[in-house]
């Protein structure tokens, strides 16, 4: 509560409610345990321990270490921690050398099934990418500069691509429920542009579902473009899906498109208005422009249930990446609908509407109208 008097010397008193020190420390203890759990998941994922347990079944620490060519002592410590926290199931009170550990069906799906919507292991990999960049982030926070996406390396790049992959595979089914988008995708000889394509899974999913559809994906991160091209070859669609190392605002040089998409990338861009303007110029007169971005609350006073997670992404990755280029809009992950609307209007669109797609993970779909 703030009180401001009318006296010449304005006196301001504040009463701030909140948790006690003990309550706050309890909260931080839970956060510390969560930090440890996510990092332990990162170890188990990257060392191949989860997949080995999923494939081989209940194992001792020595068996797991031998099969994965890792240290048995570290394997024992990790297995005990995983069992203590309920991720693994252990035999019980027997000698540690003979104790066997198993991966239950729920954690198995979340940690090893790359096609499941519950797949979580890539999130831990992304989180692991932040640690080495903390000194650079501190300097960026002091100087008002940034830390580019490229500096976070393969763990961030590949982790995000794999985390989004199961969801992007659902795009054909989702868009089949939106008549104007489905009409654009199913035109004979349809062409789409995928701005900020990353690992390419969005283009690959749409091309795989629509025979004859041609897709051009664009990204500024060279390793991501290489990854997307490899993924397209493995999926058997590289004859119809091409990826370009280019800014999003260069798409106009590739002709007109029946649909232009930007999946979870506008908030990262230093020049979102320029990119949206290029998307407007590149779409056919009877085409559609769709942006998928984080499902944030309408305002700071009305936060969405996921806003705390989105602010975490913004603090450590998205805002520093956006500010690594100058000039920058410095949007950050928490791009509210009003902000996107302002960008779209400045880019020449008439308006923005939310598409009737519910329950799609962390994201919301917008149609930019013209």
From TrEMBL:
One of its GO terms (biological process) is methylation. Keywords: Methyltransferase, Transferase. Signal peptide: none annotated. InterPro entries: Methyltranfer_dom, SAM-binding_MTase, SAM-dependent_MTases_sf, WHD_Rv2258c. CDD domains: AdoMet_MTases (cd02440). Residues 188-295 form the Methyltransferase domain. Pfam families: Methyltransf_31 (PF13847), WHD_Rv2258c (PF21320). Residues 41-108 form the S-adenosylmethionine-dependent methyltransferase Rv2258c-like winged HTH domain. One of its GO terms (molecular function) is methyltransferase activity. PANTHER family: METHYLTRANSFERASE DOMAIN-CONTAINING PROTEIN, METHYLTRANSFERASE TYPE 11. This is Methyltransferase domain-containing protein.
């Amino acid at each position: 509560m703030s009180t401001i008097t009318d006296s010449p010397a304005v006196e301001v008193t504040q009463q701030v409610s909140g948790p006690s020190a003990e309550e706050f420390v309890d909260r931080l203890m839970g956060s510390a345990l969560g930090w440890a759990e996510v990092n332990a998941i990162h170890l188990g994922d990257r060392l191949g321990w989860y997949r080995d347990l999923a494939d081989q079944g209940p194992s001792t620490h020595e068996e797991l270490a031998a099969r994965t060519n890792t240290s048995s002592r570290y394997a024992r410590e990790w297995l005990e921690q995983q069992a203590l926290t309920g991720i693994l199931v252990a035999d019980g009170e027997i000698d540690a050398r003979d104790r066997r550990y198993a991966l239950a069906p729920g954690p198995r799906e979340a940690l090893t099934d790359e096609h499941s919507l519950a797949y979580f292991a890539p999130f831990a990999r992304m989180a692991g990418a932040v640690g080495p960049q903390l000194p650079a982030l501190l300097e960026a926070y002091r100087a008002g500069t940034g830390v580019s996406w490229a500096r976070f390396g393969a763990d961030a790049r590949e982790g995000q691509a794999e985390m989004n992959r199961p969801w992007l595979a659902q795009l054909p089914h989702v868009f089949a429920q939106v008549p104007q988008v489905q009409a654009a995708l199913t035109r004979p000889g349809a062409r789409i542009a995928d701005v900020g394509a990353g690992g390419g899974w969005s283009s690959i999913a749409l091309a795989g579902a629509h025979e004859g559809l041609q897709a051009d994906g664009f990204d500024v991160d060279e390793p991501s473009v290489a990854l997307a091209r490899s993924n397209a070859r493995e999926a058997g669609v590289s004859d119809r899906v091409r990826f370009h190392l280019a800014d999003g605002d260069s798409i106009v040089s590739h002709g007109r498109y029946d649909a232009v998409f930007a999946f979870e990338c506008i908030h990262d861009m230093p020049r979102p208005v320029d990119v949206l303007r290029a998307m407007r110029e590149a779409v056919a007169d009877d085409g559609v422009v769709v942006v998928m971005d984080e499902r944030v609350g309408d305002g700071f006073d009305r936060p969405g249930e996921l806003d705390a997670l989105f602010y975490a992404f913004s603090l450590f990755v998205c805002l520093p990446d956006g500010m690594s280029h100058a000039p920058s809009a410095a949007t950050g992950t928490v791009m509210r609908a009003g902000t996107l609307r302002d960008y779209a209007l400045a880019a020449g669109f008439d308006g923005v509407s939310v598409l009737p797609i519910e329950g799609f993970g962390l994201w919301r779909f917008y149609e930019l109208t013209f």
